[in-house]
């Protein structure tokens, strides 16, 4: 299996090759009439490559339609922004109304996209009523045989347009936790901590938790014996938090001393808290545990271990009575 660097290099080579082919075709379509005018080669290029890659002729023949399409795009974008602004202005800032406002904004976004698309097609001479009727019949026919496929595609479009998560984010879906490696129209791929790649249909992605949207906590819970002076231990920890920050550069915020977490059977558990990137959370937790252990060893602070105390009672003394 190719590693990340090899895949990246392979993708770069493909991109360079495709770009070079497109540039060559564009050059042939544009320059052939000037370099080989009136020749058989010019006729061949004009009737093949020139039909698709002669940008100059395409603009000369369709500049009116292009200007009309650009005007429609600008108009729909301005209308979309105005409607979104009005929705946000009229929506009261509460949890329920904000949810309704976000729903209306989504409807406006997708509605303006569809309307703009049909207006552009109409500008290019497409019979949109016929297109709508054909799309309705085709959609009805497909819906009976490919319901799951349509559901996956629609879910994928919503994932892409709404930007619920991006490639590189760490996502929690049920019991599965992994990094997003690819978002497709039908499926999305995740890679877990073991390097295994899991492919999930977009329609099955529900209640996904994006843990990369904010910094993640790295928590170190460590215990001290009941015989230790708690205030002295707290002072020692607070005085060395800056050194821990320097020793663990992956910490984005903190570390902070949070206080006594619990009173255990054999010791007092205290907590040190820090924030870091989701992908570095577990390593930062390990580094915090190590730093706290070294700090306690340096200052002779005892960490308890499970102990069992057994109380032995003395046997009762039995006095014998003399029997007359």
Order of helices and strands: HHHHHHHEEEEEEHHEEH
Distance between the termini: 99 Å
The helix-and-strand class reads alpha+beta
What is the number of helical segments per DSSP (H or I, 4+ residues)?
10
Unreliable residue runs: none
In angstroms, what is the radius of gyration?
34 Å
User: What's the total count of β strands?
Assistant: 8
Mean pLDDT figure: 77
Q: Report the sheet-strand fraction.
A: 15-25%
Report the sheet with the most strands, covering strand number, pairing sense and barrel closure.
Answer: 5 strands, antiparallel
Tell me, what's the shape?
elongated
Residues in helices, as a percent range = 55-70%
Which strand order does the major sheet show? 4-3-2-1-5
How would you describe what is shown here?
The protein is α+β, with helices and mostly antiparallel strands. It is 55% helix and 16% strand. The protein has helices at residues 4-35, 40-47, 49-53, 55-90, 95-123, 128-145, 147-162, 230-239, 241-247, 281-298, and strands spanning 170-173, 176-183, 187-191, 197-201, 209-210, 216-224, 253-263, 268-276. A five-stranded antiparallel β-sheet has the order 4-3-2-1-5. Strands 6-8-7 form a three-stranded antiparallel β-sheet.
Task: Please give a handful of descriptors for the protein shown.
alpha+beta, 324 residues, elongated, 10 helices, 8 strands, three-stranded antiparallel β-sheet
Quick overview of this protein structure:
The protein has 324 residues and is α+β, with helices and mostly antiparallel strands. Helices cover 55% and strands 16% of the residues.
